[in-house]
Design a protein that fits this description.
This protein has 146 residues and is an all-alpha fold. It has helices at 2-28, 31-35, 40-77, 84-87, 107-139. It has 5 helices and no strands.
């Protein structure tokens, strides 16, 4: 459960930081003046303020996420979660000698885990390449001369 919360918070941080960079680009883009001179300065100021807010929010959330994962790692290292109560899948037997835990991975389970891991790596790699391409296209557009 803790790793799921960590992954969810990391994804939210990623979205906040990416959104911040998009709004920062919009606020510094001079082409908005060409299309709408009347509202361009207000729009650019709002975009800049939103960019700063999202960046700060993402940074604070990332710091809290880091503290949380470090705390979980310390608790795992000290065997805080390694007790019969935490490991037991049979709560009705009570705490102590009567509780037990059954972990048995079948071949299908292992294949599913490997497939999920491979899909996660592929999707994250594709997202990195797409974002890099997006930045390259918008920061350095190719000029086509006649």
């Amino acid at each position: 459960m803790s790793s799921l919360v960590y992954c969810l918070a990391s994804t939210v941080v990623w979205v906040l930081i990416i959104s911040s960079s998009v709004f920062a680009y919009i606020s510094t883009n001079r082409l908005t003046l060409k299309y709408d001179r009347k509202n361009a300065s207000t729009f650019q100021r709002c975009s800049a303020s939103l960019s700063v807010f999202l960046r700060r929010l993402g940074t604070v959330l990332a710091a809290l996420n880091t503290l949380g994962i470090v705390a979980i790692c310390i608790l795992l290292f000290t065997n805080f979660f390694n007790s019969c109560k935490c490991n037991s899948s049979v709560w009705s037997r009570g705490y102590g000698e009567h509780a037990y835990m059954v972990v048995r991975l079948l071949d299908g389970d292992v294949q599913g885990i490997k497939a999920g891991w491979g899909a996660g790596v592929a999707i994250s790699t594709a997202a990195c390449f797409l974002f890099t391409g997006f930045i390259q296209i918008y920061l350095e557009p190719q000029v086509i001369s006649d």
